[in-house]
Amino acid sequence: MNNEKLEQVWQDVCSQVKSYNNIDPSQINAFFSRLHPQAMSEGFLMLTADNDFIKTWIERHYVSFIKRALEDLYHVPFMVVIEVDISAGSEAPVSSQPQTAGSSETSTPVPAASSSAPIAPPATTPSDVLPPSPGVQDPVGGASEPAPPEAADIDPLREPDGPSSSLTFENFVIGDSNRMAYSMAVAVAEMPGKAHLNPLFIYGKSGLGKTHLLRAIQNYVHETMPSLSTIYVDSAELLSDYMEASAAHDKEKSSYKNFKTRYEEADVLLIDDVQYLQGKKQTLDIVFQIFNKLTSQGRQVVLSADRAPKNIDIDERYKSRFNSGGTFDIQPPEIETKLGIVKSFVDEYRESEGSHDFAIPEDIQMYIAESSSSNIRELKSAVTKVIYQMTFFNQPNLTLDEVRSLLENHFSGGPSKRLTIADIQKEVETFYKVSHADLVGKKRNRNIIYARQIAIYLCRQMLDLPFNDIGKKFNRDHSTVMYSVTNVEEKMKENRELREELETLRQLILEI
């Protein structure tokens, strides 16, 4: 398909998308003008974007509409691939093959499509443009295993033995919630293989920066000790590699051996989200063999999960080995850390776009930091939305009220995200008939302590705030808040009346 025809097809797709309900044509004009068609064949379209921001925004918000438009126009399902082309808009040499980058974060320029022959889709397709798999078959055990959740959080394109350049220690925002995990990651990167930190196990909720730290270790070792082999892999990909090797075992005797050898020859092996391996006995066994061989030879293993090793549903021997080095958690970020992440993200945008005068007002930055959940992806998505409202839609003087309206339905948790600690305190005070001065004061009457612990517990559960932030509003320190939450959780296990009481309070608070 020649370039002129390709451009016409793209214009038809744009027009089709604009015809759909709930689509703003002005937004399509603004964003789609930064996309350029590069290759097309039956069921496949490759586009390039000017930069990572455009690529990410389109993938999150519009790629489903593009696929729908293509199917409406051509009556077959389409796969859509978007890559970054820093030379977009300039004349590029003609090539007969599209080049897919090895990593979504280190993309190389993609040449224009050839006019001589149809372009076939690449052999390896990004997971975020494929329909979700209903399940994964463990080739040895024969049992069906559910596909790992949160597939969108897994890097769709990987470069297993090379760096992921945008995730480094330098652009990791440090706060009290992640300082220890950060320090241990740096120690491992500087001197991999030391026994007291081998393995290094980092855990915490999704979106708190675990993958960033693993990639930062990979980058640091790759840059400072290039002779060492570093491999980063998420558990879903590891499982897929194992399945392919096992399935091909009868046809190609070396396939299984090559699978093991690749990981066993790593000097630094980083495995992300190991909790997804629970229930997958055969895969765990092979991981355990690789793990033992590497650590026994003084080579570094780094693991991450969304929970502590003791809370992963795996055999006790795995828990013991996973926990045998250094185990550190990442807590939800405090307000100061979230504000630092907002500022860092704005700086990245300024650098990538060359817009050195661009700025988001301080009150808007603070609003985003205070309103977002602990998930850093949600935080960055909110910043991106504000950036494009200010730039693409020519609203450089965006006000706080306009941002509140823009992000009204953005933050997870719905109405609870508009709650404050003061709201919860007030409802608890009314419910238990205690004054605010007593609730946050030094009195230790039984009824006041009880109400105080309930209020602290509800703040933690409903607002997802760090212990330090909650403690400041109750004039308590981190350890007191943690004790209160744990104490209520323990009592709930045996006290049905308390569970009902808390549910009643929760409903009263949600009605505010």
Number of strands: 10
The percent range for strand residues is 5-15%
Biggest β-sheet, characterized?
5 strands, parallel
Domains (count): 4
The fold-level CATH name of the largest domain is Rossmann fold
User: Can you tell me the CATH class of the largest domain?
Assistant: Alpha Beta
Distance between the termini: 59 Å
Sequence of secondary-structure elements = HHEEHHEEEHEHEHHEHEHEHHHHHHHHHH
- Main-sheet strand order equals 7-8-9-6-10
Overall pLDDT score: 78
CATH architecture descriptor of the largest domain: 3-Layer(aba) Sandwich
Number of helices: 20
The CATH superfamily name of the largest domain is: P-loop containing nucleotide triphosphate hydrolases
Descriptive account of the structure:
- The chain has 512 residues and is α/β, with parallel strands linked by helices.
- The strands form three sheets. The chain has a five-stranded parallel beta sheet, with helices on both faces. A three-stranded mixed beta sheet has the order 1-2-3.
- The chain has helices at residues 3-18, 25-32, 52-61, 63-74, 179-190, 210-224, 235-247, 254-264, 281-296, 316-322, 335-353, 362-371, 376-391, 400-406, 421-432, 436-439, 446-463, 467-474, 478-494, 496-510; strands at 35-41, 44-49, 79-84, 136-137, 144-145, 200-203, 230-234, 268-272, 300-305, 326-329.
- α9 links the parallel β8 (268-272) and β9.
- The radius of gyration is 26 Å and the shape is globular.
- The chain folds into four domains: 3-115, DnaA, N-terminal domain (GMP Synthetase, Chain A, domain 3); 158-329, P-loop containing nucleotide triphosphate hydrolases (Rossmann fold), CATH 3.40.50; 335-412, Helicase, Ruva Protein, domain 3; 417-510, Chromosomal Replication Initiator Protein Dnaa, Chain: A.
- Residues 92-166 are annotated as: Disordered.
- One of its GO terms (molecular function) is DNA replication origin binding.
- Residues 93-102 have a biased composition (Polar residues).
- Oligomerizes as a right-handed, spiral filament on DNA at oriC.
